[in-house]
């Protein structure tokens, strides 16, 4: 297989490249996120470190999953359960914590390949809800043709819901993805941003609250 190894540690990258080559894989190494995103299209498998110098690996994973269903394992030193869940929710097929044995990595790669390539989720760059247009690529929102100025986090909340319309996102999941801290669930921060979205767009039903469950993008109309 053509394996893209995204790892900024030179010594670890060299050791993994040697091990992968011994198992018959052709390895391309990227030390930066920008190179990983550029090279991923030519890979059959991706091994992704999260601690990259130019971009967080989870952001790389999310961007990659918008356009590719390539099998991918996160290989990282981050051991917290929250980080594991964020990696899997963002689209990783598996999550392996450093240090690990080469045999375990190979076994996990084989298991991911046996499961088959995941279907590529439908990712429209522009999501329409009634007369509201949400451009996920340019981070631009219009209502009835008029531009609406949102804060960064207001748009991030809206974009998370818009990427999979109809899917309910829990408070903890939104706080984890947007704020990076699910423990903020006891605060009113998310409620304030949702209220801001409804007020600025003038569409109270744009973000629908499911009491005790979470939020989802509201239906048109």
From TrEMBL:
Modification type 4-aspartylphosphate: residues:
49
Name the domain of life.
Bacteria
Identify the keywords attached in UniProt to this record, alphabetized.
DNA-binding, Phosphoprotein, Transcription, Transcription regulation
Q: Where is the Response regulatory domain?
A: 2-113
Pfam families of this UniProt entry? Response_reg, Trans_reg_C
Q: Where is the OmpR/PhoB-type domain?
A: 124-219
DNA-binding region ranges: 124-219
The keyword Transcription regulation is assigned to this record: yes
Q: Which InterPro entries match?
A: CheY-like_superfamily, OmpR/PhoB-type_DNA-bd, Sig_transdc_resp-reg_receiver, WalR-like, WH-like_DNA-bd_sf
Q: Which PROSITE patterns does the entry mention?
A: OMPR_PHOB, RESPONSE_REGULATORY
tRNA processing keyword on record: no
Q: What is this protein called?
A: Sensory transduction protein RegX3
Q: Gene encoding it?
A: arlR2
């Amino acid at each position: 297989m053509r394996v893209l190894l995204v790892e900024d540690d030179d010594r670890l990258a060299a050791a993994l490249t040697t091990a992968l080559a011994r198992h018959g894989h052709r390895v391309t190494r990227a030390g930066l996120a920008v190179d990983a995103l550029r090279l991923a299209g030519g890979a059959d498998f991706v091994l992704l470190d999260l601690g990259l110098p130019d971009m967080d690996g989870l952001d790389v994973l999310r961007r990659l999953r918008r356009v590719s269903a390539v099998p991918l394992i996160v290989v990282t030193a981050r051991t917290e359960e929250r980080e594991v869940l964020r990696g899997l929710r963002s689209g990783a097929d598996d999550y392996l914590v450093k240090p690990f044995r080469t045999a375990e990595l190979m076994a996990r790669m084989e298991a991911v390949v046996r499961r088959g390539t995941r279907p590529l989720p439908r990712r429209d760059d522009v999501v329409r809800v009634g007369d509201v247009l949400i451009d996920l690529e340019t981070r631009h929102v219009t209502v009835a043709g008029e531009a609406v100025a949102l804060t960064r986090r207001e748009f991030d909340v809206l974009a998370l819901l818009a990427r999979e319309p109809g899917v309910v996102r829990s408070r903890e999941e939104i706080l984890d993805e947007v704020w990076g801290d699910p423990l903020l669930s006891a605060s009113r921060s998310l409620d304030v941003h949702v209220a801001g979205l409804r007020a600025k767009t003038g569409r109270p039903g744009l973000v629908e609250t499911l009491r005790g469950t979470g939020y989802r993008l509201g239906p048109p109309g």
